[in-house]
Amino acid sequence: MDTEYRARKEAFVSDLSGGNIMEVGNVLLVPLTAILLWTTLRTRCSFLLRYCFVSVLVEFVFTVGTPLGALTVCYPFVPALNIGLVLCSAFLLLCVTPSIDGSHTSTQSSKQGAGRQQHYLFISHHRGALMLLVCLSILAVDFQVFPRSLAKVENWGISVMDLFAGSFVFSSGFISHKSSRNAAKRSFYLTLCGLLRLAAMNLLNYQQHTSEYGVHWNLFFTIPALTAMVNIVDCITAAVRLPDEAVAVATVVASEICLRSRGLQENLLSLDRGTGFISLNREGLFSTVGYAAIYLIGRGVGSHTFMLLSSQNRSNIVLSGLATQAFLWAGCFALASTEAVGFGWQIPVSRRLANISYVFWVAAVNSVWLFLYYFIDWVHTTAGQGSGNRHMRSDDNPVTKSVRSDIISAFNEAGLAVYLIANLITGGVNLAVNTLDMSGSSSMALLVSYAIVLTAVALDLRSSERKLRV
Fold first, then answer.
1. What 3-state DSSP class applies to 94?
2. pTM of the model
3. CA–CA distance, 404 with 376 (Å, rounded to integer)
């Protein structure tokens, strides 16, 4: 890459301040409201249940095209977009009779699911929507059509892209009880990916935002590092058996105290870098502590949720449990970041430091997300089966298929593989095309083509059962 062009690219994503919490929240709601409308439409139009070109095209427009529009040309109209999607869904739910009767499928699907690991739709939709937003954003951010308020901030503030790394970690913690035996293999793959990424960026003179993680560090190194840190914490607290959430809060409070003593925070945010590995990568190394706390919170929320899913028969109990988690972490975030009810710490969010407000913000957003995705399942379960006693699982009974987004589920199941492919395509586009000077129509044409390719790859990986999980 040309040195002058590289400097322009780095300046384009540097010194940004983000947006406000309502703007970010509205964008994050778009995948959810799009899934709500698509799954509602699918329960009312039986021809959309067939896996054919028309059904895939319609689903792509709703579940991929709508979030892509929200991240680009439709950004100014996102609140109206969400309201429209919800109103259309409400009309279909209240005024159109479902075309699927699931009263006879519950027992059969339970027998089919016995003896094998169950995958719940709300988790699949949560993880898949997150992966979709990440994959769309990592390329779109290099174009003028992507609002700068959604790109990663420099030091203080919030944005959509600031949420992604923490959400990956939270999501990994949430399902960690299912994948603990594969942790070592996953860490090895991620470390290898990090080394290959580092080598490729240096070889190609690719643009690098060093204030994000440091000179050599990246997210692929952070996840194995925090996994090792969590294992150490587990060994230390094994005898006491403290709740994961308590350990996480203690960890992040201690981290915040360290930040505010002996000038550590000022040193981490300083433009001056030394020559040693620690100094060159100080943001990435220190923020691992905050990400470890996020992982522990995710694991704690996951433990409570799966306990309710396995031991309770009524889904409204799970809904109440998820709502409680959402209120708890939203309250912690309000306490840390504002002066709530006359007191509070008023600590601004910093993804660069992964400070206490960032940790609680990530926990709050993902807890609310999980609650809302489960609420969609609950609405469809109640409307489609006449009761709220069953949890939606990703099996093959007609009711479950009708309220499942195949594309979003594919992005979840393809996991790390589709993320790596998205990174490779992003790198290729940035090396081959001048994204900064491209017109709006050309930018959108390229981004839509990119979204089509990624969707096709995710669906192919899902059908062939080749997957790598993050």
1. helix
2. 0.91
3. 11
* Terminal-to-terminal C-alpha distance of the chain: 30
Q: For all residues of the chain together, what is the average pLDDT?
A: 86
- Cβ neighbours around 94 below 10 Å, total: 8
Reference 36, options 101, 99, 103, 81; nearest CA is: 81
Quick: pLDDT tens for 233-276: 988 888 888 899 999 999 999 999 999 887 899 989 887 887 88
Q: What confidence tens digit (pLDDT) does each residue in 12-44 have?
A: 888 888 888 999 999 999 999 999 999 998 888
Give Cα 22 to chain centroid, integer Å: 18
CA-based angle 348:357:9, to the nearest 5?
65
At 295, list the tokens.
């992982």
Residue 433 DSSP symbol: S
Contacts (Cβ under 8 Å, ≥6 apart) of 234 = none
Please give the Cα distance from 268 to 354 (Å, whole number): 12
Instruction: Tally the C-alpha atoms within 13 A of residue 395's C-alpha that lie toward its C-beta.
Output: 20
State how far the Cα of 368 lies from the Cα of 205, in Å rounded to an integer.
40
What's the gap between Cα 469 and its chain centre? 13
Range ranked top by mean pLDDT from 75-79, 309-313, 386-390: 75-79
Nearest to 66 by CA among 42, 84, 87: 84
Q: State the burial class of residue 124 (Cβ atoms within 10 Å of its Cβ: 0-12, 13-18, 19+).
A: buried
Residue ranges per structural domain of the chain: 3-464
What b/e readout covers 146-159, taking b as 16+ CB neighbours within 10 angstroms? bbbbbbbbbebbbb
Positive/negative CA dihedral, 300, 301, 305, 308 = positive
